[in-house]
Amino acid sequence: GLSAGLSASVGNRPGFLHGMPSRYAAVMGKEGSIMADPHSLCDLVEGARLMAHTGALARYVKLSGTPEEAESLNYVRARMAEYGYRTETLHHDAYISLPGAASVEVDNRVVTAITHSFSRSSPTGGLAGTLVDVGAGEDADFAKRDVRGCILLVDGIATPGVAWRASQAGAAGQLHVSPHAHLHEMCISPIWGSPTAENLASLPSTIVCTIAEAEGAGLRGRLRAGEQPRVVLHATVDTGWRKTPILVAELPGPDGDEDAPFVLFSGHHDTWYFGVMDNGTANATMLELARLCATRRDEWRRGLRLCFWSGHSHGRFSGSSWYVDEHWDELDRRCVAHVNVDSPGAAGAEVLANTGAMAELAPLAAQALLERAGQMHAGRRMPRGADMSFSGVGLPTIFGDLSEPASSAVVPHSWWWHTPEDLLDKIDERILTRDAKVVMHALWRLLTDAVLPLDYAEHARRLLAELGRLEVALEGRFALAGLIAAATTLRTRAAAVMQAAPDEVAGVNRALMLVSRALVPMDYTEGDRFTHDPALPQPAWPVLQPLRALAGTTPDSDAVRFGTVQATRSRNRVLHALREANAALAAVGS
C-alpha cells in the first residue's frame, strides 16, 4: 500500500516524513486508514479540461477592478456553480495601481520602456535628472553616495526593495535595466495590501521605468567613460481606490456542518495582459480539482473553500489581505491550511523541486512531488508572495509557484512572465496536468486525512537548527537554553501526538490547529497577528531578528545593552508561542 511504499522508498531519510509509518499503524482500521489514498483521484485529472478552461480564460485581459476582469470571473463562477459549489462574489475597496504609457528619452532619442504599478506619474515634460549607476540597488550600493534628486540606473527587474531604498535615499527616479530584451511588469509597492494612514508614506516617491538590456548596457558604458547622457523619464500611472472582486466558492463537508473546519484553496485571477500562465492555468487547475473533489465529497473530513483573488498584481495582494482582515475570526477558528497555486503548466517548466512549503507541510509537499512527478523536494522555505496573507492568522501554507524551467535565474519564472507574450502557446498540457496532480495529491490529503498532515516535529527540527546557529553566533552572551528546551519538547510531543489512538483524532486536530496559530506567526511574521508586515524580504523566524542583530554587536558596548533589551522581548515572544504549542499537544488525551 501507500504507507509501505513510502517507508521503503523514502521513509528512512532524515527529516522526511518523520514518524509517519508508526502513525499509519496506530490508526489503521478506523474508516480504512488515517491517511487518504489520493492516487485514484489524481489519475482522473483531465488535461483536456484544464486546457479548455485555460483557453476560455485566455480571452480576457484581467486588470484589477475592470469590466473585463469581471466578465472572466463570471466564467469561473458559472463553472463552480455547475460543480455544486455555493458561490458569492464579494466587492471591496482596494488601492489599485495600473501602469499606463511610458517612454525614456536618451539625448532626445526615444527608447522603448514600461513603467510600473505604484510608480509615480512623471510631470509634464517628463523627469530629467543626473543619471547615477547604483548596480543592483542593494544597501551597499547606496552607501556613501548622495543620490538625492537623481535618476538611478539599476540592474534587474523593478522590486519593492529597490523602490523603498531609492525613495528613502531621496532619488527622483529609477531606470531599471531588464536582464534581457523583455520588459517585465512589476508592482513595486513595499506595502502588503492596501495602505493605511500609518504606512501610506511608505509608497514609492520615485518615477520608475524599465528598459531592455541592450539599452541599459549602452548607458552604463557611457557613464563609465565619464559621459553624462541626458535622460528623461515619462510615465503615466493610474493609482487610486477601486472596487475589486473576490469570488468565493464553498462546499462544507459531507455532514453539512457550516461551522466545521475547512481547507482554503486559492489563486489570483487578475493578470498582466492576458496572463495565460500567470495566472490562467492556476484558475483552470482550481476548477478541475474542485470538480473532481466534489465527486467524492462523501470522503471529505472537512470542508473546502476556494477564493479567486483580484488585486494580486496591481494592489500588492490587496484582495487576500482584505479577506484576512474581514474574516480573521472565522479563519482563526475554522481554517486548517491554505493551498495556493500560481503559474503552473508552463512549457519547459520541468523542475518542481523548489516549490515552497511551510515546515509543517514540507513532508506533504515532498510526498506529493515524489508520488506525482518523481522529483525530490529541495525543502525550500515558503517565500513571501503568492497571496501569503494568512501567516498572521497562523495558517500553514503550501505551494504557490509550483514549477519552473531548469534555468530561471534571470527572472523568477519563464521569460514571458509578466509580459504580453504570456499567451496560450506557452502552455504545455502534459506539464499542466502533472502540476495539477501534484496539487491534487496535497489538497486531497488535507481534505480527507483523519489526522491533519501537519508535521510540527519537522517544524521543531528547523527551529532547533536556527537556534543552534544563533547560539554559536552569540557565543554565550545571551541565554537560549529556555528556547532550545521548549523547542526540543515540541519536537518530542509533536512526534508522539501522531501516534494517538483513533478516539483521540478530533483532539489531535484541534491541538494541531492551536499549534499552527502559535507558531506560524513566529516563523513568518514579526509577531503581530493582526497586521501585515511590509512586502519586503524577511529571514526565517523574523521575530528572532533582534537576536541576530545582537550577535553582530561589539561585546561590552552600549549597542549590546540596547540590543539585549529588544532581544529579550523577542525571546519572550517565541517562548510564549512554544509554551502555547506544547500545552495544546500535552492536552491531547488528557
Descriptive report:
This protein has helices spanning 2-9, 20-27, 39-42, 47-57, 67-82, 139-142, 160-168, 213-224, 276-295, 318-326, 328-334, 362-373, 429-448, 456-474, 481-497, 505-524, 545-551, 558-586, and strands at 86-106, 109-112, 114-115, 127-129, 131-133, 151-155, 173-177, 207-211, 231-251, 262-268, 303-309, 335-342, 397-401. It has 590 residues and is an alpha/beta fold. The strands form two sheets. Strands 1, 2, 4, 9, 10, 11, 12 and 13 form an eight-stranded mixed β-sheet that branches. A five-stranded mixed β-sheet has the order 3-8-7-6-5, with helices on one face. α4 (47-57) crosses α9 (276-295), α4 packs across α13 (429-448) and α12 (362-373) packs across α13 (429-448). The longest helix is centred in the last third of the chain and has 29 residues, at 558-586. The protein is globular, with a radius of gyration of 25 Å. Residues 1-32 have low confidence and may be disordered.
Q: Please outline the major beta sheet.
A: 8 strands, mixed
Q: Which shape, going by the Cα principal axes?
A: globular
Q: What is the radius of gyration computed over CA atoms, rounded to a whole number of angstroms?
A: 25 Å
Tell me the span between the first and last alpha carbons: 33 Å
Low-confidence stretches: 1-32
Instruction: Please tally the β strands and state the result.
Output: 13
- Overall helicity: 25-40%
Output mean pLDDT. Answer: 92
Beta-strand residue percentage: 15-25%
Q: Please tally the helical runs, counting DSSP H or I stretches of 4 or more residues.
A: 18
SS-derived structural category: alpha/beta
